[in-house]
Specification:
single chain; 236 residues; mainly alpha; Rna Polymerase Sigma Factor, Chain: A; 2 domains
């Protein structure tokens, strides 16, 4: 037993301090590993879609998870619009979209990645539509809810009804015109990207968008004429 006034040798002091020194080193090592993981996650979140996709193609699965988290809302909304607001069909098409993106990553050739994603989503939606019976397709083309904006005097409610009218009108468009219109007006793609996505010429893409706008005007105009007529009768 060492007395209180005894002087410990260097080796004895080292033995006493060794456990705490090891623990300190272990904590520092763990802290460094955690920091590296955090830095890696932050780096992935800051990377562009193209960089993330390239990392995934090189075998980094976490890059695909990050890309999925980043683009899932946009692609589901796109599927929902192409599927005419049918949530079940859109969900099926959305799931199929990411399965195809995962399985066909090696087919990507460096083009506009967002347009490539949308092209896969578009084809998934079309495949889902082809599985539906012709009778159901015909029914959905003409079953349009009636919305009377004049019955809603408050502005927010009027805007909600107007949004419903527009969505219903978009659903009435033939699918080839609908997808061209959605790609242009909602996704903001150029005519060139739309042509590549739909596998048509740029001129055909422009024509489909123009026809879609004309049909939407035809669908929506009677609602506004009816509203003006009601307003005029109220002022008499």
């Amino acid at each position: 037993m060492v007395g209180s006034d005894s002087v410990l040798s260097y080796s004895e002091r080292e033995q006493l301090l060794l456990p705490s020194t090891r623990a300190s080193k272990s904590l520092r090592s763990t802290s460094c590993e955690d920091n590296k993981k955090i830095e890696s996650l932050e780096a992935r979140m800051e990377d562009s879609d193209e960089v993330l996709f390239q990392r995934f193609r090189l075998g980094e699965e976490h890059a695909f998870v990050t890309l999925y988290s980043r683009r899932q809302a946009e692609l589901f909304t796109f599927c929902l619009r192409i599927c005419g607001g049918d949530n079940d069909l859109a969900s099926d098409a959305f799931q199929e979209t990411f399965i195809r993106i995962y399985e066909r990553a090696d087919q990507y050739r460096g083009e506009n990645l967002r347009a490539w994603f949308l092209r896969i989503a578009r084809n998934a939606c079309l495949d889902i539509f082809r599985k539906k019976t012709p009778a159901r397709l015909e029914d959905e083309h003409y079953e349009i809810e009636s919305n009377d904006r004049s019955t809603q005097p408050e502005f927010p409610l009027e805007q909600e009804v107007l949004r419903g009218l527009i969505e219903n009108a978009i659903e009435r468009l033939p699918i080839s015109l609908r997808e061209a219109f959605v790609l242009r007006e909602f996704e903001g793609l150029s005519h060139i990207d739309i042509a590549e996505t739909m596998d048509i010429s740029v001129a055909a893409a422009r024509q489909k968008i123009w026809r879609a706008r004309m049909m939407l005007r035809e669908y929506l105009l009677p609602n506004f004429i009816e509203e003006r007529g009601d307003a005029s009768s109220d002022t008499r």
